[in-house]
Amino acid sequence: MELFVRARWRAGLFVVACLFATTFAAAGAPSPLEDSAPPALRDAVRDVWSRNPAVQSAQARVDAAEAQSAAAGRPVYNPDLELAAENADVNTRSVGISQTIDWSGKRRARETAATADVRAVVAERDEVRQRVALDWLRGFAGFQVATDQAGVGAERVGLLEQFAALAERRFRVGDIPVLERDLAILAVQEARAQQAGLIADQAKTRQTLIGVGGRSDALPPLPDALPPPADVASVTTQLASLPALRRAQAETEAAQARITVAERERRPDPTILLAGGRVTDGPFHDRLIGVAVKIPLFVRNSYSAEVTAARSNADAVDATRRDLTLRATAELEQAASSYDALRAAWLAWEQSRAPSATERAALLQRLWEAGEISTADYLVQLKQSLDTELTAMGLRARAWAAWADWLGASGGLASWLGTADDLPTTSKELSQ
Predict the structure, then answer these.
(1) In CATH, what is the architecture of 2-76+115-257+325-431?
(2) pTM of the full predicted structure?
(3) Does position 113 have pLDDT exceeding 90, yes or no?
């Protein structure tokens, strides 16, 4: 077992040396990178959006907010019809209509607040879409890489089983001692255990895809080339377009508008009554015309507490907006640094042109059969090659996850996917 621990330690050193030895040479090398995602990725994301319950729920909230905004734009007061009849010494019959006038502008204030609420809910919907798309992108890249790793793991098991069978035959004819035969058998058992772990990782990434409404079958291929490096300078001034910051800004405007609503609620609105009828006193008849004006008196309750509450809520919402802005700036820089570092390491690995594990295994087997290396050296070097290839595959998945983080931090998801102009905007379109 000490031999295998030492082998893993040496494999780790080899990976680090391989990646960093050529990082600086590869960082500035040209690469055939694309500025936008392939159409297959865009179609896959739209398919996820169409089936994701969180996106459907967010779109339903947008529809509700738009209906509430339309309701807020309608008149505040409806007219009242009054019918009166009185039989006494003098009989009176009258009909009247009363109307409360929105003298203080309550309708306009409510409509302004409702419009800001719509912008906030639309930004929240875009935020949900972004989160779902980025979760799918991380899961998609992870699943594709995990599938490739499981393939390499299966190849490792096959190579070691073949080597163990060959070691058994050489042991029977006395070419190698029992210790080397047992070492080959132990290597097969370890490879099988590691393969089970790779399959479990693949199942976990498949769960991520299914959890956001994606599919693990008929997936588009993962692009061979990573996207371009992160450009912080070009997006720093565009942070306000992030869905989270747009939502915070709209919520701030809505909170400010509710202060106006609360202030307008403190102003009384007059009610005007026009009535007409007839008065009958025995044989005498006379016409009745009446005009009345009612004005509520806010004496017992001036509604000043509602204004104070609205102002405090606006201060809290504005503080939240400023906090989100600071966090977004820090997240942008961190996402750019992480992606650029992982991208440079992956490009260094690609340009290192290291031999594949299969080629390395064939060469090692010839050396072992010729007696130039021992069984222990064969296993150590084979494990080193396989572990390095698996580590490089994992690096690719981490690079794509970092790219997803950069898209989320910079707000460039719609631009990269090319879906900014053709997003579904209604619940009906989402369900199609």
Answers:
(1) Up-down Bundle (1.20)
(2) 0.76
(3) yes
